[in-house]
Amino acid sequence: MELATTLKGQSIQNRIREVGINPNYWYPVEWASQVKPGEVRSVMIWRQAIALYRDTQGSLHALADACPHKGVELHKGEVQGSNLACPYHGWEFDGDGNCVNIPYFPKDQKLPCAKAQSYPVQEKYEIVWIFPGDPNLAEYQSPPEVPEFDHPDWFVVRIPGKFEAHFSICNENTMDVFHGFLHKDLQGWFDPVLLNLQQTESGVAADYRVSYQGWLTKLIGIGKEGTGVITRTVSIRYQYPHYHSALEDVSSLYLMRSPVESGLTRSFSLMFIRLPLPNWLLKGPLKNLIEKLILKHIFLKFLHQDVEMMESEQRNYIGNPKRQYIEVNPAIIALQRVIIGQYEKFMQQSKQPFNQTNGGYKASLTLAEMVKSE
């Protein structure tokens, strides 16, 4: 539905800072290059501790980070071929979580029915994704589509993020183009205007007109001279639980959110830009160096300023969760409705059996019934 773009004060429902996630989506947990064959990593998606490992053949597996024997953390174990061995007694579990070997058992003795919970896992865009919800739903969902990935006209900068804040705070920061004031010393944007706003059950689409000025506009291709004021449209698309933000044909940013717990969120972002440099240089041996320089001297500077604000917001909420706040951006209110609606949708779905014939749950409530307007 299309929403009004008028800026006016509205009260925020503080429960947005307490809601959980809808786990029936793919969530990023690690850069693929960080999980080498034979290695185990400890990851977490909304309080679910998971042992992620890549077997010696290169395949990825994800198991609940608790041995079904004694509850020891499996990420402290070691990879044995395609299996993960618990560090305590050496019990081995395959990628489906089945106990396949106990080193001190006689070879002809039947193994106990011990099984660790397994999670669907995949590798895409050099990121490892895990589906923490109902595994029967994994095939009906997919990570966001990133058409710019591996496209020769785009240069990608990978941006890691870790924020000590609730994921709703992080998501609001991305939707809130009005905070360009924060980045004024970095030649950020100014004079933002919300042009269009739409909301569905699972997403928010917002278009803003913004202005830029300075040498940075020349570097990322916004303006040819790097001087004067350049006006462009920023299109933000939130499709629960991830983001895509585009600055016309100049840049394209994908923010993959990974809520860890109520006060911690990780982000795996891919920023695609068009650099005024020859392709042989951007695709050659200097590619990684160029990416690191841009990340360090441009994007991380913006990110660090955002992190300071988000974490400040979280600290004040924890200090006084009953304090009332006022929001004027209707895009933020729409975003909050989607986040609350998705969580309440999951809570309703979890009470109903999965219907294999229609590939999903039959929801008993509509979005309008679940989420009241703020």
Largest sheet entry:
7 strands, antiparallel
How far apart the termini lie comes to: 16 Å
Order the strands across the largest sheet as they lie in space. Answer: 12-18-17-16-15-14-13
* Rg (C-alpha, Å): 23 Å
Segments where pLDDT lies below 50 for 5+ residues? 354-374
CATH topology group of the largest domain: Naphthalene 1,2-dioxygenase Alpha Subunit, Chain A, domain 1
Q: How many discrete domains?
A: 2
In percent terms, what proportion of residues is strand? 25-35%
Q: For the record, what is the CATH homologous superfamily label of the largest domain?
A: Naphthalene 1,2-dioxygenase Alpha Subunit, Chain A, domain 1
CATH top level class name of the largest domain: Alpha Beta
Helical content band? 10-25%
- How many separate helices? 6
Any idea what the CATH architecture of the largest domain is?
Alpha-Beta Complex
Structural class: alpha+beta
Shape: globular
Mean pLDDT: 90
SSE ordering: EEEEEEEEEEEEHEEHEEEEHHEHH
- Number of beta strands: 19
Question: Could you explain how this protein is built, in words?
Answer:
With 374 residues, the protein is α+β, with helices and mostly antiparallel strands. It has two domains: 1-26 and 145-368, Naphthalene 1,2-dioxygenase Alpha Subunit, Chain A, domain 1, CATH 3.90.380.10; 36-130, Rieske Iron-sulfur Protein. It is 20% helix and 30% strand. It is built from six helices and 19 strands. It has helices at 167-175, 215-219, 279-282, 287-319, 330-349, 367-370; strands at 10-11, 27-31, 40-45, 48-54, 60-64, 78-80, 83-85, 92-93, 99-101, 121-124, 127-130, 155-163, 190-199, 203-213, 229-239, 242-247, 251-261, 264-273, 326-327. A seven-stranded antiparallel beta sheet has the order 12-18-17-16-15-14-13. Strand 4 (48-54) and strand 5 form a beta hairpin. Mean pLDDT is 90; it is low at 354-374.
